[in-house]
From TrEMBL:
Residues 335-570 form the ABC transporter domain. One of its GO terms (molecular function) is ATP binding. Keywords: ATP-binding, Membrane, Nucleotide-binding, Transmembrane, Transmembrane helix. It comes from Streptomyces roseolus. This is ATP-binding cassette domain-containing protein. It is found in: Cell membrane. The chain crosses the membrane at residues 19-43, 55-72, 133-152. It is a multi-pass membrane protein. The keyword Transit peptide does not apply. InterPro entries: AAA+_ATPase, ABC1_TM_dom, ABC1_TM_sf, ABC_transporter-like_ATP-bd, ABC_transporter-like_CS, P-loop_NTPase, Type_1_exporter.
């Protein structure tokens, strides 16, 4: 029952109306409880006096009130659920958009599993907090004071029992707020870490098995689960203390008010109706407090996740999206790296330094170099996952920073075997690039990428559902499917990233040729890790230790000696292989 976290207050912004409606309906439910209390007090007083003529009417009215409450409760739950759903969808949209603008650079520091936990469980918790706890909080702050006013009019002495008990029930637990918030944060951190560890263990299962580390990972996950259990119990312990205080105050307050009302009745100071009314109102006074304690438990996860959600929502992107140009080049643009230098945060030496080369418009340029030469870094800079520390990268003469991030990333399509394929049909995976593409568009793109015949040979053709991470396809097929997707997106610049080639060199060279042919008049940059793939490229840029070592075609570069000739001689691009 802590003060509302600013992040949670903010989450209510988009659904103020349904939340207000849910609160008013909750108020209506409370009113039915009060009406029932009044009617029962009258009925009991009549019974005590031996008068029965009004009884049937009173009891019938009680039934009507009960029916009205059932209707109001149903309506209230429906409205609150709708409000919660609106809050949940808006928050997830916002967080996903933020993740999109943060880009992959963010996930090199934050763990994917932890982000998933925040996005899924955290947001679910916010829904419960906002749609159930907050309306109840408003009712709790308004109804008991009103009832105290009514009680004061009927039987003021009962206030001596009710007021201190209400204050204790509401303010007593506040003494534990700080501890509860700290335990909540601790619990959430442990929960996030467990989620992240599980996701990593699942995704890395083949690697763990190959390294014989499954047992060790299981032990670590067990330790994480035990830590979550300990933190849940620690949190629960504090929670039980506060709930205990609330319960004690409620029971004590009701009993004290009842005793005072009876004492006053015995002294003849109140009527029978007044005494019964005070007895029933005393109980109604505490109902919102009791309900609030219950809803607090439902929304507790949201309150704990609020810090994590705020951190994700306000995380600073690695680059600023201040460009305005639309990247709608009529023809394929020229791509130029102009004296580009970049040093990763915390690194002592630059990853790339003074890199200058041009990838001519509508032609294929290959970027080669030993492992660690800086090829992936240049790709990350081109896509603006980071901005260069020195120099600039231009497309069609304009620096990449002049384009909107969205336009830039749509204008430059990356094809790689690590391209994510979703657990969906092949058609849906292709349509991720262009949702309105017709079946003919899909087939044309797949044909150009040389994967159409293989798709139609599958029993379900384009309706084949791919496994997690596209595991049902071979490396080459995945790559060609990724190319088909890029062709559908109609980006004018294609980057072929050969980062994790799982096919043999001959096949790879064949794929690269097919892909560059399919690319048509686009500007293509092939990031090659094996030379067989690029020996036919007419323009090769050789990178070494973050600098351009040479540029030219295969024959020219072999004749010139240097890094390229050594790589060719070694038949590999890895320095250790070169040295061998
Ligand atoms: N996130 C990072 N943080 C710090 N240093 C990094 C990071 N990523 C890469 N580096 C460093 O930057 C340099 C260039 O790496 P990069 O991944 O660009 O090379 P590469 O040519 O793509 O290598 P490979 O062929 O092995 O993929 C290397 O020294 C690498 O250790």
């Amino acid at each position: 029952m802590t003060v509302v976290h600013p992040e949670l207050r903010r989450a209510t912004r988009g659904a103020r109306r349904p939340l207000l409606a849910a609160t008013l309906l909750q108020g209506a439910v409370t009113l039915t409880h009060l009406a029932q209390a009044v009617l029962l007090a009258l009925a009991l007083a009549d019974l005590a006096r031996g008068r029965t003529e009004r009884l049937p009417w009173l009891l019938a009215a009680v039934l009507v009130v009960v029916a009205a409450r059932a209707a109001a409760t149903t309506r209230q739950r429906r409205t609150a659920t709708r409000a919660g759903a609106e809050v949940r969808v808006a928050l997830r949209d916002e967080l996903l958009a933020r993740l999109g603008s943060l880009g992959p650079a963010y996930l090199t520091t934050a763990r994917a599993g932890a982000v998933r936990t925040t996005l899924v469980d955290g947001v679910e918790g916010v829904d419960a907090y906002v749609s159930r706890y907050l309306p109840q909080l408003l009712i709790t702050l308004t109804v008991p004071p009103l009832l105290l006013a009514v009680t004061a009019a009927v039987e003021p002495t009962a206030l001596f029992g009710l007021v201190p008990a209400l204050l204790l029930a509401l303010l007593g637990p506040r003494a534990w707020d700080r501890l509860l918030a700290a335990r909540g944060r601790e619990h959430w951190d442990t929960y996030e870490r467990l989620g992240a560890d599980y996701l990593e263990a699942l995704q890395g299962m083949p690697a763990l098995r190959a390294a014989g580390a499954v047992g060790r990972t299981r032990a670590r996950l067990e330790e994480r689960s035990a830590a979550l259990h300990r933190s849940t119990v620690a949190q629960l312990r504090v929670s039980l203390v506060t709930t205990g205080i609330t319960d004690l105050a409620i029971q004590g307050g009701t009993a004290a008010a009842a005793l005072l009302a009876c004492w006053s009745a015995v002294g003849g100071a109140t009527t029978a109706t007044g005494t019964y009314l005070v007895l029933l109102l005393a109980s109604e006074c505490f109902r919102p407090v009791r309900d609030l304690a219950r809803e607090w438990h439902a929304g507790y996860l949201g309150a704990s996740a609020a810090d994590g959600i705020a951190a994700l929502r306000t995380a600073a992107p690695a680059v600023r999206d201040t460009g305005t140009a639309p990247a709608d080049w009529p023809k394929a643009p020229e791509l130029r790296f102009d004296n580009v230098g970049f040093t990763y945060d915390g690194a002592s030496a630059p990853a790339v330094d003074g890199v200058t080369f041009t990838a001519p418009a509508g032609r294929t340029t290959a970027l080669v170099g030993p492992s660690g030469a800086g090829k992936s870094t240049l790709l990350a800079l081109l896509l603006r996952h980071h901005d260069p520390g020195d120099g600039r990268i231009t497309l069609d003469g304009l620096p990449t920073t002049a384009y909107t991030l969205d336009a830039l990333r749509k204008g430059v399509a990356v094809v790689s075997q690590t391209t994510y394929l979703f657990h969906a049909t092949i058609a849906d995976n292709l349509r991720a690039a262009r949702p309105d593409a017709t079946d003919d568009d899909l087939a044309a793109a797949a044909r150009a990428a040389g994967v159409h015949d293989e798709i139609t040979a599958l029993p379900d053709g384009y309706a084949t559902v791919l496994g997690e991470r596209g595991a049902t396809l071979s490396g080459g097929q995945r790559q060609r499917l990724a190319l088909a997707r890029a062709l559908l997106a109609d980006a004018r610049v294609l980057v072929l990233d050969e980062a994790t080639s799982s096919v043999d060199e001959r096949r790879e060279a064949h794929i690269v040729r097919a892909l560059t042919e399919a690319a048509g008049d686009r500007t293509v940059l092939v990031i090659a890790h094996r030379l067989a793939a690029v020996r036919h490229a007419d323009h090769i840029v050789v990178l070494d230790a973050g600098r351009v070592d040479a540029t030219g075609d295969h024959t020219h570069l072999v004749e010139a000696g240097g890094v390229y000739a050594r790589l060719v001689a070694a038949g590999r691009t890895h320095p250790e292989d070169v040295a061998a």
